[in-house]
Specification:
CATH architecture: 3-Layer(aba) Sandwich
CATH topology: Rossmann fold
Structural class: alpha/beta
CATH superfamily: SGNH hydrolase
CATH class: Alpha Beta
Number of domains: 1
Helix content: 40-55%
Largest sheet: 5 strands, parallel
Radius of gyration: 19 Å
Number of helices: 9
Strand content: 5-15%
Length: 274
C-alpha cells in the first residue's frame, strides 16, 4: 500500500512538472537581477491597476517580509507599451520628484537625483494579448527594446511581465510566455512569469478564481498572485510566510494567501532554474 501511495505521489509530481514545462518552450537567459532593487516602477494597464493596484499588494507583501520596497505605477487602461513614453517617466524632475509629508503638515519634500537614477528596476507590461496579436505584436517587438534601452541608460534594470491567459483561452499561457521571453532574451531583460503562476494555481486550485466574469481582469486573488510573483522575481526571496492578506477591502482567506505565496515561489524557482 505504501509503495502504491508513493508511486501515485511521484506520478502526480511528474504530471505537475510536465504541465509547467508545457506552458513555455523558451527558457530565460537572464535569471536574476544584478542588485536588489529598492525603488520599483510598474508600467502597464488595467491588469496592474485592478483591485486598487498591484503596487499596494506588492508593498504589503514586502513590508510583511521585512523588505524595503518603494513602488510607483504608471498605467493606462488598455495600453500596450507603444502607448507609454517610458523615457519621460524616468526623468529626475518627473515621477517621484516630490512627495507630501505624512505628518499632517501637508508640507512637500522635493527629492534630488544627482546621478539621474530615480528607479532601481522598471517592470513593463504590454497589452494583454499584444505580444501575440497578429496586428499588435509588431508594436511590442518595436517598443519593448526602445523602452529597455531607455531604462538601462538610467542605470535601472528592465523587466518584461508575461501576463496570464484569458480564462476561456488557456492556450494563451504558452503563447504569451514564449513571445515575451523571446524579446526579453533579445534585450537582455528579465521576465516576470505571472502567466505561469496563474496557470499553475488554476491546475492545483481550480476553485480559486484568478479572473473576474470578463475572463480577463484579475480577481483579488489574481492581483495577489501577480504581486507575489513580482516580489519573488524582484527580490529573489520567497513571499511565503507573509501575513499580508490584501487590501482594497478585499482581504483573502489566510489559506488562500498561503497557497498563492507557495505557487508564486514554485513558479519563479522552476522557471529560472533555482
Amino acid at each position: 500500500m505504501k509503495l502504491k501511495v508513493l508511486a501515485c505521489s511521484m506520478a502526480l509530481a511528474l504530471v505537475g512538472t510536465m504541465a509547467q514545462a508545457a506552458d513555455y518552450t523558451v527558457k530565460p537567459s537572464v535569471t536574476s537581477l544584478k542588485t536588489s532593487p529598492k525603488t520599483i516602477l510598474l508600467v502597464g494597464n488595467s491588469f496592474m491597476y485592478y483591485n486598487c493596484g498591484v503596487d499596494g499588494y506588492l508593498s504589503g507583501i514586502a513590508k510583511s517580509k521585512g523588505v524595503s520596497l518603494s513602488t510607483t505605477m504608471a498605467t493606462i487602461g488598455g495600453a500596450g507599451l507603444d502607448w507609454h513614453l517610458v523615457k519621460s517617466y524616468l526623468r529626475p524632475n518627473g515621477l517621484k520628484s516630490y512627495s507630501t509629508l505624512n505628518d499632517g503638515s501637508n508640507k512637500l519634500v522635493f527629492h534630488k537625483y544627482p546621478d539621474g537614477k530615480v528607479f532601481d528596476a522598471v517592470v513593463m507590461q504590454d497589452n494583454s494579448q499584444g505580444p501575440t496579436h497578429p496586428e499588435l505584436s509588431k508594436f511590442f517587438k518595436k517598443f519593448a527594446p526602445i523602452h529597455v534601452k531607455d531604462v538601462k541608460a538610467t542605470g535601472a534594470e528592465p523587466l518584461l511581465m508575461a501576463t496570464w491567459a484569458y480564462a476561456d483561452r488557456p492556450e494563451m499561457t504558452q503563447q504569451l510566455m514564449d513571445a515575451t521571453t523571446k524579446v526579453a532574451n533579445q534585450t537582455k531583460s528579465m521576465v516576470v512569469p505571472v502567466g505561469l503562476a496563474f496557470a499553475k494555481s488554476l491546475r492545483t486550485r481550480p476553485d480559486l478564481k484568478m479572473t473576474i466574469a470578463d475572463n480577463r481582469h484579475p480577481t483579488a486573488a489574481g492581483s495577489y498572485l501577480e504581486a507575489a510573483v513580482l516580489f519573488a522575481t524582484l527580490t529573489g526571496q520567497s513571499p511565503e510566510g507573509a501575513d499580508f492578506l490584501g487590501g482594497c477591502e478585499k482581504p483573502l482567506k489566510p489559506a488562500d494567501a498561503a497557497h498563492l505565496q507557495k505557487i508564486a515561489w514554485e513558479t519563479v524557482t522552476e522557471f529560472f532554474g533555482k
